[in-house]
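STRUCTURE:
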């Protein structure tokens, strides 16, 4: 197997067994990133010099017998939103580019404690507030399978990088599909952790609204389910319960014209059903509160009318979303990408009143109680989106339209966020155009291990990650082949 195809767990074992040096692994990924990044724009800040020194140190440590850690010597990447010591966390805003962070985010600290070597940070939309990865400071990230298409967001840089084999494993965050959209569009594995299961300390922007904090999940963007499990074991507060997959039945969505799924996606999900052929119990139903999910998600994201986000748009906290939007549309002179300013205008328009907030809280309480029971023995098999990766700009138009089309396109994504549920996304095939299509497996907090078990079964029976080779440099064969 080529090094760039290897997942983190496999590479860690080979490094620990001294079959591959950490230096060789880091150097191989560095060379590959230098080749693909001019086309994809997935990596926005590197620490290659530091990574090389850490790899040399790791290789020396192996000779002394003191090597420790489940990711010892393994090169990884992280989303730009996570603080890394002596690196920038801009949120795609130029005014933040002059400041370097003094300490690691909690999740980064945990990964480094296990021996991981950080290659660099990956692109996001401004303030991670959009499902397409583009900002005024770093520019747009392209999908490696077709550069005219979106890589998704807000972890779009991470998705494109892992799809191309730019690191052994990556780290993302998800409050509205931000891990799952890029995983689906780029053909990788992604895991969104459940309600408050992973620390967000050192994540920017910090989420301090309780309604939004419950929706935030942090987890792996990887090549295999076993890496998603490993990463969750490292960064989660508590290990999941040891539930067996046999205890669960699979729930498939009911087709409905209001919540579209294109034919290829529908057929691939049906293929999962065929692959298990009754081994596990199954039913066809939409889970409780499914139809309410998209609107509830929008209300929760709009609970303060976007006031906190608007303050972060400028260094003096006085920028106006409407003013920045008009500056950009009329004069192309705003430092803020219109994706962010338009989204914040919508957030202000959708701000719920006190009566609506009271109703929202009542629904959340009732739904939490109902789903705790409903998902005790169920795993939901849900699409991520109604189609593979759209062309640049089309996804944004669907999710931020004044026609409220998000009500049709967001329920499958919004469901796991609103109810704070862990969700595992896995590639299950491709469209006729060769674009990846994924599926998400969803249950309640505590059932993560069952999700990983089912995910591994789907990998074995249907497929899983296939690295995008379109941007490989042919003369690097010596560097990327194992000997």
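SEQUENCE:
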């Amino acid at each position: 197997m080529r090094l760039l195809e290897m997942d983190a767990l496999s590479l860690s074992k080979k490094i620990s067994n001294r079959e591959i040096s950490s230096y060789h692994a880091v150097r191989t990924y560095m060379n590959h990133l230098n080749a693909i990044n001019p086309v994809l724009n997935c990596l926005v800040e590197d620490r290659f010099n530091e990574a090389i020194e850490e790899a040399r140190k790791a290789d020396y440590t192996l000779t002394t017998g003191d090597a420790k850690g489940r990711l010892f010597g393994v090169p990884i990447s992280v989303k730009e939103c996570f603080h890394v010591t002596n690196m920038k966390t801009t949120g795609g805003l130029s005014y933040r580019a002059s400041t370097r962070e003094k300490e690691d985010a909690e999740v980064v600290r945990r990964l480094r404690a296990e021996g991981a070597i950080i290659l660099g940070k990956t692109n996001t939309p401004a303030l991670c507030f959009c499902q397409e990865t583009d900002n005024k400071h770093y520019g747009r990230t392209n999908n490696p399978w077709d550069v005219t298409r979106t890589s998704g967001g807000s972890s779009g840089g991470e998705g494109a990088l892992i799809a191309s084999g730019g690191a052994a494993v990556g780290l993302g965050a998800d409050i509205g599909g931000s891990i799952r959209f890029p995983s689906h569009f780029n053909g990788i594995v992604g895991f969104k952790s459940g309600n408050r299961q992973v620390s967000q300390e050192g994540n920017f922007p910090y989420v301090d609204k309780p309604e939004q904090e419950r929706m935030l999940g942090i987890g792996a963007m990887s090549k295999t389910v076993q890496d998603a499990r490993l990463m969750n074991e490292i960064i989660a507060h508590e290990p999941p319960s040891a539930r067996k997959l046999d205890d669960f039945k699979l729930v498939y969505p009911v087709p409905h014209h209001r919540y579209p799924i294109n034919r290829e996606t529908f057929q691939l999900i049906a293929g999962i059903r065929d692959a298990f052929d009754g081994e596990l119990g199954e039913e066809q139903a939409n889970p409780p509160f499914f139809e309410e999910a998209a609107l509830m998600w929008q209300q929760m994201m709009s609970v303060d009318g976007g006031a906190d986000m608007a303050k972060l748009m400028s260094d003096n906290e006085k920028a106006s979303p409407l003013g920045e939007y008009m500056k950009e549309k009329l004069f192309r002179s705003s430092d803020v990408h219109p994706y962010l300013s338009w989204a914040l205008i919508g957030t202000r328009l959708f701000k719920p009143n006190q009566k609506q907030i009271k109703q929202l809280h009542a629904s959340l309480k009732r739904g939490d109680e109902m789903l705790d029971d409903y998902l005790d023995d169920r795993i939901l098999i849900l699409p991520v989106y109604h189609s593979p990766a759209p062309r640049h700009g089309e996804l944004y138009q669907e999710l931020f339209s004044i026609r409220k089309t998000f009500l049709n396109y967001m329920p499958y994504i919004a469901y796991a966020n609103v109810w704070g549920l862990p969700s595992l996304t896995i590639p299950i095939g491709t469209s006729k155009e060769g674009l990846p299509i994924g599926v998400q497996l969803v249950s309640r907090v505590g059932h993560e291990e069952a999700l990983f078990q089912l995910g591994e079964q789907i990998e074995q029976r249907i497929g899983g990650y296939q690295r995008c080779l379109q941007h490989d440099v042919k003369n690097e064969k010596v560097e990327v082949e194992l000997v």
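REMARK: Residues 304-349 form one domain.
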